[in-house]
Design brief:
By secondary structure, the chain is an alpha/beta fold. It has 24 helices and 32 strands. It has three domains: about 290 residues, Alpha-Beta Barrel (TIM Barrel); about 140 residues, 3-Layer(aba) Sandwich (Rossmann fold); about 170 residues, FAD/NAD(P)-binding domain.
């Protein structure tokens, strides 16, 4: 039976080949010299063409800024004049050539305008403490200018061949800033009552409809709830949305949620790993009850099952799948062909999509390095000559290199010392709220299995020089990861070795010793062992052996100090892991905030979690050494010495040491065989770097 997602759908007079929509999002792929010259280049065109080739029914182009008071800053499309038309036409032509439809998506950031050199335009002037600037309350003439700018930009989209228009009325952007009592405190005809707050958005929609005519599909993207105290609720929107529909004679409504000016609300409307899928489905369902036109809904609609449930439950008529299609542009065709299990999953890590965008870089995907590199990597060129490639290590880098090499026609032997593939992904998936990584592990295992005619997978094999030489390889790829270590605390390596050797098998720790045991991050999962249930600062096994428990420690819960030198997910995950298992936890960072390398959504969620489980955060402290149960630190600003007392365990979280111990011997044994080091075996970094490096090597062989 075919999926209901592949039933044709209609928006206005336009027929779409299926019910899957790529909702509007920034890509960071535009070209131009500045805020007024951000246009579509080859990278952006090929990005959208690949999603059309993958079978999506409708594409919402990334937001086009319609007026110079909302600058593009070189990574957002602008549509201020006719210079935008050629690039838009190239995108439309490329999408149409693959059988999909595409709508122009119009917006204005208002108070959120990134990098505005003048006071950003908005409903009410205020001091924006997050951006450190004062905003400008728009005059009636400025409002009229922006109304006209929307209509002009809509017309240019049609001249460029776009099939319809979407106007952004949500996420705390300009039109939303006028709609919401949270941001609109005006006392003139554009504020005060609901009628006043509706006036500007309704004028925009009416002007766009007049300009494009009755037959062109027109819709809006909106926040079905602001999800902020004092903001618009879904019941408010149930009154507002029909008014907007009438003002523009709209053909559809694209329901999202949230206000980007609020950190928590912003995080929730593109929820990172650890939060529920489709969190605002009930909001979309409520608004659909007051509408007679189609509803699109897309907030972490991550899979075929989630998307089909939207349709089956009457929540929406179309499934908006943004990050899922960033992760795998061919998901729609895979659904059609009953092969959705082969789709690269979106695990909602947000590292290479939203994370890249907020760093001013083109988006990509941790699990799919081709995203954003379609111009270079869309096709897999067959190798000129088939070779035997031996890959040592089936972690993220090794699995990627093996799969890409096999796609190009090589014969691959993939050796893994553990009983299953995945490497450090298993450690990452064991952390609180991070089990989404298991979907990526499972996908990689299925992908390797599907190419078993070209990839010989040898599990439970501890490779060495003799093992590799016996396989007579043409090329060797070393992807055997890194060895955890305690970094600056090498002087207590004896404690670490004892813990690592004993803990996984149920042996005791050293909480009763004169010095707090130092534990490396990747072995913290051993604390889930039933033999290590915590009793007043000692494991039960340690307490039973000693026969006594120090009275002072018996009066309190055990205390762990986590020294975070990665400043990403790892240290926070370890801290929450221990806190949720009954320990008092202090996390120490030399940065000005814990987790400063995280994108804003993951940072917000991490801060919520640390607060919820009572983790104490100590920042601006550089860990120096351990004396007994004290950690000595240096304040990075005052340079004073700071002592953190009563540590029963100290966990260091930092990059490991590349496993390269037998690389020299291998080079000597196979002097004429090319040898590549990838992933953490080359240089400990993160999963994005590991997979990207594996992919590049696989294409280069």
């Amino acid at each position: 039976m075919s999926s209901p997602l592949w039933m044709p759908g209609r928006i206005g007079a336009l027929t779409l080949r299926n019910r899957i929509v790529l909702t509007g999002h920034g890509t960071g792929m535009v070209v131009g010299e500045g805020a007024s010259d951000a246009q579509a280049g080859r990278q952006l065109i090929d990005y959208y063409a690949e999603r059309a080739r993958g079978g999506v029914g409708l594409i919402m182009l990334g937001t086009q800024q319609v007026h110079p008071s909302s600058p593009g800053l070189g990574h957002l499309l602008v549509n201020y004049d006719d210079s935008a038309i050629p690039g838009l036409r190239r995108i439309a032509d490329a999408v149409h050539a693959q059988g999909a439809r595409i709508f122009g998506y119009l917006g204005h950031f208002g108070a959120q305008a990134p990098g505005a050199t003048d006071a950003p335009w908005t409903a009410t002037a205020f001091w924006d403490e997050l951006q450190g600037r004062t905003t400008h309350a728009m005059s009636a003439s400025e409002i009229a200018d922006v109304v006209a700018a929307h209509a002009d930009a809509a017309e240019r989209n049609l001249r460029a061949g776009m099939d319809g228009i979407e106007v952004h009325c949500g996420h705390g952007l300009l039109l939303h800033q006028f709609l919401s009592p949270w941001t609109n405190h005006r006392t003139d005809r554009y504020g005060g009552t609901l009628e006043g707050r509706l006036r500007f958005p309704c004028e925009v929609l009416a002007a766009v409809r007049r300009r494009i005519g009755a037959e062109v599909p027109l819709g809006i993207r909106l926040s079905g709830t602001e999800d902020v105290p004092g903001g618009l609720t879904v019941e408010d929107m149930a009154i507002i949305v029909p008014r907007l529909v009438d003002a523009g004679a709209l053909d559809y409504v694209d329901v999202s949620a949230g206000n980007d000016r609020d950190r928590v609300s912003n995080m929730r409307h593109h929820p990172p790993m650890g939060l529920a899928v489709a969190p605002y489905a009930a909001v979309a369902h409520r608004l659909r009850t007051v509408l007679t036109i189609p509803v699109i809904h897309g907030t972490r609609i991550d899979s075929q099952d989630t998307a089909e449930n939207l349709l089956a439950s009457g929540t929406a008529d179309f499934a908006g799948m943004c990050r899922a299609l960033i992760a795998d542009p061919h998901l729609p065709n895979r659904i059609r062909d009953a092969q959705a299990d082969l789709a690269n999953p979106c695990v909602a890590c947000e590292q290479a999509c939203i994370g890249h965008l907020h760093q001013g870089q083109p988006i990509s995907c941790v699990g799919n390095p081709i995203t954003g590199r379609e111009t270079e990597w869309r096709a897999f060129a067959q190798a000129a000559a088939m070779k035997h490639i031996v890959v040592v290590g089936a972690g993220p880098a090794g699995m990627e290199a093996a799969w890409v090499a096999a796609r190009r026609g090589h014969r691959v032997t993939l050796i893994e010392r553990n009983a299953e593939v995945g490497g450090q992904l298993h450690v990452a998936a064991s952390a609180p709220g991070r089990d989404g990584w298991r979907a990526l592990i499972a996908h990689r295992a299925r992908r390797l299995s599907a190419m078993s005619d070209r990839i010989a997978l040898k599990l439970g094999v501890a490779a060495d020089v003799d093992t590799v030489v016996a396989l007579a390889p043409d090329v060797v790829v070393m992807a055997c990861g890194a060895e955890p270590h305690t970094g600056i605390f090498t002087a207590v390596a004896e404690d670490v070795a004892a813990y690592v050797a004993e803990a996984p098998s149920g042996g005791g720790d050293r909480t009763g010793s004169a010095r707090a045991p130092v534990i490396v991050q990747s072995h913290v999962a051993a604390l889930t062992d039933p033999a290590l249930r915590i009793v007043s600062g000692q494991s039960e096994s340690a307490a039973s052996r000693s026969g006594t428990v120090d009275n002072e420690r018996a009066a309190r819960r055990p205390h762990a100090i986590v020294i975070d030198r990665n400043h990403h997910q790892q240290g926070i995950a370890v801290a929450c892991f221990l806190a949720e298992r009954g320990m008092d936890v202090t996390i120490v960072s030399a940065g000005t905030r814990v987790g400063w390398r995280l994108d804003h959504a993951n940072f917000t969620l991490a801060q919520q979690r640390m607060r919820a489980c009572g983790v104490t955060q100590k920042v601006d402290l550089q860990a120096l050494r351990i004396i007994g149960h004290q950690l000595l630190c240096r304040d990075v600003f005052s340079r004073d010495t700071v002592r953190l007392d009563a540590a029963d365990r100290i966990v260091t979280v930092e990059p490991g040491i590349p496993r390269q111990e037998w690389v020299p011997s291998l080079r000597a044994a196979l002097p004429d065989v090319p040898l590549h080091l990838i992933g953490d075996c080359r240089l400990p970094r993160d999963i994005e770097a590991a997979i990207l490096e594996g992919h590049r090597v696989g294409r280069a062989l």
